[in-house]
Design a protein that fits this description.
Blueprint lengths: L1 H16 L31 H17 L3 H14 L3 H14 L3 H17 L3 H13 L5 H17 L3 H14 L4 H17 L3 H15 L3 H14 L3 H17 L3 H9 L6 H17 L3 H14 L6 H16 L1
């Protein structure tokens, strides 16, 4: 058991080194950290790809020779998220789901089975899988809530605006949630409110979100760009332009992203968020302390009641202290 655990942890370290690090913008990461607006896929570090293959070999050996389902799950994660081999990943996840007696692992496998179906554009099968699990009596309330939120993600992609808003309202009021989970729900509800009077636009917007989930960013940007051009509601246009900028950052089109953010109208929460995202681009991507300071200081002056005031103040202080040293 000890030897197995050591090999498993070594394989995890190889896997981590074999992947490109995720972009970390500490304050502006609300879309990237919300499954409704982001993709489960990751990118392989091509210069270290051999490490990924070594990790896969170790996971495979552990899962076959030692019936280690944690290793089988990690292997399926690589097949799905890194390699995009949907069929192989689905079979591996299904094996973990059917075999595991660990409910947490079983739950992870169910969510990934749904993710694979969504990656294929099959929202109906994903919905059916979750509906069956929600009827099961093996899950506790917290686990059922995770399944329910996954089901809501599908409802989002299906543009079921009114149902989704009502269910998220119930969840936010009746369940004890982690702060990050609660904030994610509030962010989703903010989007739903903006689209409440525009059901046709919402349908197009959610089609773009499914494209993002499927790692088809270019197609998503095309849909969102068309929406932005046609949209006459300033608040809604701000949201759409903000998300386009966020996607452009992931495509390493930094100048285009800044240009899009600068075009956002000075109205509503997405103007504030756009200014913060620009600051963090200069801070963490371009590594331009001077421009980062200018934007951070401007945000503190223009948004004194911002919920982001304190983390921005602390970051600005740190940059200024580094400059002195």
């Amino acid at each position: 058991k000890v030897a197995q655990k050591a090999v498993f942890e070594f394989a995890k370290s190889l896997e981590k080194r074999g992947l490109l690090k995720k972009l970390n913008l500490p304050i502006s990461n609300f879309m990237d950290n919300n499954s409704f607006f982001s993709s489960p896929f990751v990118r392989i570090n091509q210069s270290e790809s051999i490490l990924m293959h070594q990790a896969m070999s170790l996971y495979d050996s552990l899962s076959i020779n030692n019936a280690n389902l944690d290793s089988a799950f990690r292997l399926s994660e690589i097949q799905f998220r890194a390699l995009g081999d949907l069929d192989s990943a689905y079979d591996l996840y299904m094996n973990v789901y059917k075999t595991s007696k660990n409910k947490d692992l079983k739950l992870k496998a169910i969510n990934r089975l749904v993710d694979v179906k969504l990656a294929k554009g099959d929202t109906d099968t994903g919905s059916e899988l979750l509906s069956e699990e929600l009827k099961s009596n093996i899950w506790n309330d917290d686990q059922k809530l995770i399944l329910r939120m996954k089901h809501n993600q599908i409802s989002f992609y299906k543009s079921e605006l009114n149902f989704l808003f009502d269910d998220l309202t119930i969840i936010s009021k009746e369940f004890s949630l982690e702060e990050s989970d609660y904030n994610n729900i509030i962010d989703i509800m903010r989007v739903l409110i903006l689209f409440k009077d525009y059901p046709e636009l919402f349908q197009k917007y959610t089609s773009a979100q499914l494209k993002i989930h499927q790692n088809k960013r270019t197609e998503a940007i095309t849909i969102l760009d068309d929406l932005s051009i046609k949209c006459e509601d300033v608040m809604l246009k701000n949201l759409i332009d903000y998300q386009i900028a966020n996607l452009l950052i992931h495509q390493n089109k930094i100048s285009e992203a800044i240009e899009r953010l600068e075009s956002i109208h000075k109205e509503g929460i997405y103007y504030e968020r756009a200014q913060i995202l620009i600051a963090e681009i200069y801070d963490h991507i371009i590594i331009d302390d001077l421009n980062a300071k200018v934007y951070y200081l401007s945000i503190l002056q223009n948004f004194p009641n911002s919920i982001y005031y304190e983390p921005i103040r602390l970051r600005l202080n740190k940059i200024m202290e580094s400059a002195v040293q």
